[in-house]
Design brief:
Elements (H helix, E strand, L loop, with lengths): L31 H11 L3 H6 L1 H4 L11 H29 L3 H9 L5 H34 L5 H17 L1 H30 L11 H13 L5 H5 L5 H29 L18 H13 L1 H15 L8 H18 L6 H24 L19 H14 L7 H12 L9 H28 L4
Helix pairs in contact: 1-8, 1-11, 4-9, 4-11, 6-7, 6-12, 6-13, 6-14, 6-15, 7-13, 7-14, 8-11, 8-12, 13-14, 15-16, 15-18, 16-18
């Protein structure tokens, strides 16, 4: 006689912790301060310091074209626009209690939401790998400062991967640790580094405001890169107001501070980015600076934690009854292994391409959820019907983005450049790929919604 066993399902998560599966209730335990400090920490990235060269030289001429004032203003404007967008996404998560990729069931339908989910898993794993490489490099710099010989690089990758994965097992507990201890240390470190760089004088003269919007667009893109994981955390907020306010305030303040530090550090090294880690040299010029840099290196674990955890939560849209802890272990192990084995240089452009996918998609979500009244009937169940028509505004918005700012991938960018020539389209300095792709997707969504409403009204008025 044969017997069959039912698959075991994980028991309930510990009190005040994220649920283990999608079937379990979502605790609403995070305050506005929890959200604010978490997003403030995510707003300052070691990876972003050298990336500020894109703000100073948005067209890739090889030298800064923006003035210091223009670069800082572009950082402020771009960060504000990006964080407000993130704040709206936070509201959707707080209102529905659903993580980001599950939210897309209400927009595209359960089955159609698998496409952006797969793209997001690829993106999150890729960014987690980048962060582990940055953390391990930062640890090597600190070890070299302290001991002379930093030792094998793989050891730092393993340490960073192990700490990151451990934090994902109890994510809400990790957020509380960040609020209580890490944020204060980060604020002190940023204040000292800013004061130290300002005291040495920032050798930056000349430049103009000509390419301001290209620069601001790059900052918007960096902020909006967090869109696919916002609801993974805001779903645990005690209120929509705290989710929105905490994120916008924390991310904006930290993003602007990080941008200013990045511009100043690049000026100190004469914008030499032949070695992407040379930008850290001004931070480690003094013994106190080394300590502050160490704080920022340890804080970088927040970034890898967020990416690894959201990889697992995104995968639950495909595997709703899978144990989150198992998925976190898998995604953390995968990211660590790739950080040891993969050269990420060629993968960076692909990650930016995926990021561009989510800007117009977010526009479709915002219009459908807030403007067209979708929040009243938003269906995040596994039976959510497919809404193929909503893919149209998303695709048009993505095409708009690529037409204005083609992602630099061999063959891909050539196609969009050829299309520009074929239709006689010339990119103007005032054009923002992020804002215009958002506008096209939003307006198309409104048109689709208006058309759908007219069809509904017409059919309801037919004689019976």
């Amino acid at each position: 006689m044969t017997t069959t066993t039912e698959p075991t399902t994980p028991g309930p998560a510990p009190a005040n912790e994220a649920p283990l599966t999608l079937d379990q209730p979502t605790p609403k335990v995070l305050s506005g301060l929890d959200q604010g400090t978490f997003w403030a920490n995510l707003g300052v990235s070691l990876l972003g310091f050298s990336g500020m060269l894109v703000v100073l030289d948005p067209l890739g001429t090889g030298s800064p074209t923006l003035s210091f004032a223009a670069a800082v203003t572009a950082s402020v404007v771009g960060t504000l626009i990006g964080t407000v967008a993130l704040g709206l996404a936070a509201i959707t998560g707080a209102r529905t209690g659903a993580p980001s990729m599950v939210l897309l069931r209400g927009l595209f339908g359960a089955k159609a939401s698998y496409l952006p989910t797969v793209l997001n898993v690829l993106q999150m794993v890729g960014w987690a790998v980048f962060e582990l490489v940055v953390i391990s490099t930062g640890l090597k710099i600190l070890a070299r400062q302290a001991f002379g010989d930093p030792g094998p690089g793989w050891l730092y990758v393993l340490v960073a991967g192990a700490v990151t994965t451990a934090l994902t097992l109890r994510p809400l507990g990790a957020l509380r640790i960040i609020r209580r201890y890490v944020t204060i240390a980060v604020v002190l470190a940023i204040c000292y580094l800013g004061w130290d760089l300002a005291g040495r004088g920032i050798p930056m003269e000349g430049g103009s405001w000509k390419d301001f919007w290209f620069a601001a667009d790059s900052v918007i893109a960096v902020s909006i890169s967090w869109l696919p994981l916002v609801a993974d955390y805001s779903r645990h907020s005690r209120s929509e107001k705290e989710a929105f306010g905490g994120l916008v305030i924390g991310q904006t303040l930290a993003g602007v501070a990080g941008s200013v530090l990045g511009v100043a550090a690049l000026a100190m090294i004469a914008f030499d980015t032949t070695d992407p880690y040379k930008v850290f040299d001004p931070f480690t010029a003094t013994s106190v600076g080394v300590i502050c840099f160490g704080v920022l290196v340890l804080r970088e674990v927040d970034q890898s934690f967020a990416n690894v955890y959201s990889t697992a939560v995104s995968a639950q849209n495909l595997l709703p009854r899978a144990d989150r802890r198992v998925l976190c272990l898998i995604s953390g192990t995968l990211a660590t292994a790739l950080a040891l084995l993969v050269n990420m240089d060629s993968y960076a452009s692909f990650l930016y391409l995926i990021g561009a996918v989510f800007i117009p998609m977010f526009a479709v979500l915002v219009v459908d959820f807030f403007v067209l009244g979708g929040h009243r009937t938003w269906d995040v169940s596994e039976q959510a019907p497919t809404r193929w028509v909503m893919l149209l505004p998303w695709a048009l918005g993505f095409a708009t983005y690529q037409l204005i700012a083609p992602t630099n991938i061999a063959g891909w960018s050539d196609f969009w450049t050829s299309l520009q020539d074929a239709v006689g389209f010339t990119v103007q300095p005032w054009m923002s790929a992020s804002l215009l792709s958002f506008a096209v997707a939003a307006l198309t969504t409104l048109a689709v919604g208006y058309r759908r409403r007219r069809v509904y009204v017409s059919s309801s008025c037919l004689p019976r």
